[in-house]
Specification:
Ribose-5-phosphate isomerase A, Alpha-Beta Plaits, 249 residues, 6-stranded mixed β-sheet, ribose-5-phosphate isomerase activity, isomerase, NagB/RpiA_transferase-like, globular, Ribose5P_isomerase_type_A, Rossmann fold, single chain, 2 domains, 6 helices, alpha/beta
């Protein structure tokens, strides 16, 4: 049984984490203007953004959103954020979403919530992407968070073997785990997710190309050259981060 003091410490950490997510979401909301067509991300940090956005909508703020998952769509509907589809609105002004990891070039690992494919489609249909997260998500090099790879269920074993060979060719010896195990996780698109524990990604571009060359791989959680800005909330406030190469611009 969990000790009372440990429970309190855990609750305090959870509350602090949610507060940081809220601050990052509110900072990003400052870049949203009335009339925008928004891509709205998935996950606990994105949900904080939805709640903050809904408050502004109730005050008369005009936006239309494209959700990246059924979960996000349900929350937006519950809170009164107007929605459309990417079919009806194929060009978006801005996507705001969380990340599982990001580096100083704003390369991301996403997909911990299982919505990486829709998240990437929506983000790349947008003129800009803003990432919101707590400061602990910033890393010197990607890979500590397992890389999700979305795959079709048909031929799963063959696809997994092909991924293992591609990883070996790139010098990785990494476990590849089916999310959900004996009861596989199913994405909104009807796919499965393989999580790859790489520990450290040495060449994200080469890894991206190798994975996308494999039949059966739908997409992966590396978001490269997509994010424009990140708002990272920490103990000392909210940091606005742009890709390292753009710092002088």
């Amino acid at each position: 049984m969990r000790q009372p003091h440990l429970r309190r410490e855990g609750d305090e950490r959870d509350a602090m984490s949610e507060e940081l997510k809220r601050k990052a979401a509110e900072a990003a909301l400052e870049e949203v203007t009335s009339g925008m067509r928004l891509g709205i991300g998935t996950g606990s940090t994105a949900e904080q953004f939805v709640r903050a956005l809904a408050e502004k909508v109730r005050e008369g703020f005009s936006v239309i959103g494209v959700p990246t998952s059924e979960r996000t769509a349900a929350l937006c509907t519950e809170l009164g954020v107007p929605l459309t589809t990417l079919e009806a609105c194929p060009e978006l002004d801005l996507t705001i979403d969380g990340a599982d990891e990001l580096d100083l070039q704003l390369r991301l690992i996403k997909g911990g919530g299982g919505a990486l494919l829709r998240e990437k489609i929506v983000a790349t249909a947008s003129l800009r992407m803003i990432v919101i997260a707590d400061a602990s998500k910033k890393v010197a090099r990607l890979g500590a968070f397992p890389l999700p790879v979305e795959v079709v269920p048909f031929g799963l074993g063959a696809t997994r073997n092909a991924i293992a060979r591609a990883l070996a060719d790139l010098g990785y010896d990494a476990p590849i785990l089916l999310r959900g195990g004996d009861t596989p996780f199913v994405t909104d698109g009807g796919h499965h997710i393989l999580d790859i524990d790489l520990r450290e990604i040495t060449d994200a571009d080469a890894l991206s190309r190798a994975l996308l060359d494999i039949p059966g791989v739908v997409d992966h959680g590396l978001f490269l050259g997509i994010a424009d800005v990140a708002y990272l909330a920490g103990a000392n406030g909210v940091e606005r981060l742009v890709p390292a190469a753009d710092e002088e611009n």
